[in-house]
Amino acid sequence: MAIENLSDVSLPFLFGLMKAISAFSCLIVYTNGVNQLFDMEIDKVNKPYLPLVSGEMSLQMGVAIVCASALMGLIIPYVIGSVPLLWGAFAHLFIFSAYSIELPLLRWKKSAIGAAFSISVGYAVVLQLATYLHMQTFVLGRQAKLSRTLGFGVLIMSTFYAVVALFKDIPDIEGDRKHGINSLATRLGKEKMLSHVSLASILWTKAKATDLEKNDEITAFYMLIWKHKENQVSHVFWDLSCSIKA
């Protein structure tokens, strides 16, 4: 974290934080908007209640909102003069444009690996690092210092968003499969995906309860993983390898 002691929390600090939040809020609107623009045919199947496909919002209005959000996401860091925030904004725009836009070498969401990479890097790495460096160097005027705490936070959030990316498409299998989105959910199906979620929950609960000072408990935890190796865990890695080849 950029905060090293309570005296860091001041009015300029809060204003600096609000500027970062404002910039990335615009970029998140862009992210969701551009995804809906290029997913209209899919959303007619998966999410017909969304404003563009339901007719509640016109296509022209959607394009205008997306363009304005992207522009504001860049203007805010440029006007305030924060280099970390500006580079973070450019990186965020690039990643999520590549995630959604249907062009050669883009539309990364078609691949389970591409989707996981885009979401975890865009939100867990770019957003966190840009905000941290903005607060550390631009707002507090300190040298950039990448701490273990920051690294741990990025690692945890990267893992979280990667899992979200892999499992978020369970309700969208029908439309994704119809339009060539090779998500993990379309490859495995709902039942297998839910079984993997259950397995992950079991392993997480067991891991928290395992006493690392007791070899018998460590062995029991290892055997639990091994027990599910052939019938569940291996399927995940097989599907991910297929996604890479695809």
Automatic annotation (TrEMBL):
Location in or out of the cell: Plastid, Chloroplast membrane
Protein source organism: Vanilla planifolia (Vanilla)
Cellular compartments per GO CC: membrane
Membrane topology classification: Multi-pass membrane protein
Keywords: Membrane, Transferase, Transmembrane, Transmembrane helix
Protein name per UniProt: Uncharacterized protein
GO terms of molecular function: transferase activity, transferring alkyl or aryl (other than methyl) groups
Segments passing through the bilayer: 20-38, 59-80, 86-105, 112-130, 150-167
Similarity comment: family membership: Belongs to the UbiA prenyltransferase family.
The keyword Translocase is assigned to this record: no
PANTHER family: HOMOGENTISATE GERANYLGERANYLTRANSFERASE, CHLOROPLASTIC, HOMOGENTISATE SOLANESYLTRANSFERASE, CHLOROPLASTIC
Stored Pfam families: UbiA
